[in-house]
Specification:
binds 5-amino-5-deoxy-1-O-phosphono-D-mannitol, 358 residues, carbohydrate derivative binding, Glutamine--fructose-6-phosphate aminotransferase [isomerizing], five-stranded parallel sheet, alpha/beta, single chain, transferase, 46% helix, glutamine amidotransferase
């Protein structure tokens, strides 16, 4: 049931504050983590995350968190590559498979490859009765509720929330890092996400311009480079506009050749220690008449000055929340662009909700 919403996707975007609150409640309680006891990272030397599509991009964000907080190396790969590369698996590897449906053929095949090779297999799934859930040693359901729209939205942000908690657990087990301060920060996520949803009117007008474009670039740094990829993926699958996501620092190594006055460049840049560098990338785009749409907070908007054709202002958020919060305007931008173009938002052409054949 779509309720009062025109599409399942829009409903699922707006459900995010509520389902994230459910998800956090399931795994954290009064400043303490409540993850399965068997999820013990002592002795773990490296993490391998395997997934497809948007779930893979959640894995890329998790790499930043786990490496930064728990100081162990994290490899992230798309399942279709991983399964056929048959990579060596060093001792002390924890393997994490991320899948909304829990039925994605390549992800399942990669999981089966890792059986007997990894110390433990963790499934981060939405469908708790799925094959990936059944075949994992430890299952962490993301509690997003049914996701009907083909484009993943609340699935992505709930995957991120679970992976953030898992990173906190790894940091506690390996380094004795107290999770309580970050858990208190995560408690603010539903409220801040409601604020991010409040930016929808501005995003609708940005979508009117974007709907006229035939190509778009998305840029970001650090964990936000994965969000740039997610923004580009959402836009292409929904609106059929050709879009590419890049780590901002890669701009000079090729994609800047595409920039001209017809090229919208969506820059995902919350205030953080890398903001200045991203602003300088943005200036390079503007010097070539590229049309910058900047997603940032009030301080970032001030630092960026007059250049961007449009600034979409997000609430100021602690770093650990930024990937979830900035997913929202990217989802809404793709949604409204597609709606204006009249494409089938919930069921885009050529796509299936669950890719059970390779
Ligand atoms: O069910 P899964 O999470 O394993 O699905 C993975 C991808 O097929 C999925 O995320 C796909 O990229 C979505 N259509 C993205 O919106």
């Amino acid at each position: 049931d779509k309720g009062n919403y025109k599409h399942f996707m829009l409903k699922e975007i707006h459900e995010q504050p509520a389902v994230l609150a459910d998800c956090l409640r399931a795994y954290a309680d009064g400043g303490a983590l409540r993850l399965p006891e068997t999820l013990d990272f002592r002795g773990c030397r490296r993490v391998t995350i395997v997934a497809c599509g948007t779930a893979y991009l959640a894995g890329l964000v998790a790499k930043h968190w786990i490496e930064r907080m728990a100081r162990i190396p994290v490899e992230v790969d798309v399942a279709s590559e991983f399964r056929y590369r048959e990579p060596p698996v060093p001792e002390g590897t924890t393997a994490i498979f991320v899948s909304q449906s829990g039925e994605t053929a390549d992800t399942l095949a990669a999981l089966r490859y890792m059986k007997g090779k990894a110390d433990r297999i963790v499934g981060v799934v939405n469908v708790a009765t799925s094959t990936i859930a059944r075949e994992s040693d430890i299952v962490l359901p993301i509690h997003a509720g049914p996701e009907i729209a083909v484009a993943s939205t609340k699935g992505f942000t709930c995957q991120l929330a679970v992976l953030a908690l898992l990173a906190l657990k790894a940091a506690f087990d390996l380094l004795g890092r107290d999770p309580a301060p970050d858990l208190a920060t995560l408690d603010r996520l539903p409220g801040l996400m409601n604020e991010a949803l409040g930016a929808e009117p501005g995003i609708e007008s940005a979508a009117q311009e974007l709907a006229l474009a035939s190509d778009a670039l998305f840029l970001g740094r650090g964990a936000m480079s994965a969000l740039a990829l997610e923004g580009a993926l959402k836009l292409k699958e929904l609106s059929y506009i050709h879009a590419e996501g890049y780590a901002s620092g890669e701009l000079k190594h090729g994609p800047i050749a595409l920039v001209d006055r017809d090229m919208p460049v969506i820059v995902v840049a919350p205030t953080d220690p890398l903001l200045e560098k991203t602003i300088s990338n943005m200036q390079e785009v503007m010097a070539r008449e590229g049309r910058v749409v900047l997603l940032t907070d009030a301080a970032g908007a001030k630092a960026a000055g007059q250049g961007p054709v449009r600034v979409l202002t997000m609430p100021e958020v602690p770093a650990i929340l930024a990937p979830m919060i900035y997913a929202v305007p990217l989802q809404l931008l793709a949604y409204h662009t597609a709606r204006l173009k009249g494409t089938d938002v919930d069921q885009p052409r050529n796509l299936a909700k669950s890719v059970t054949v390779e």
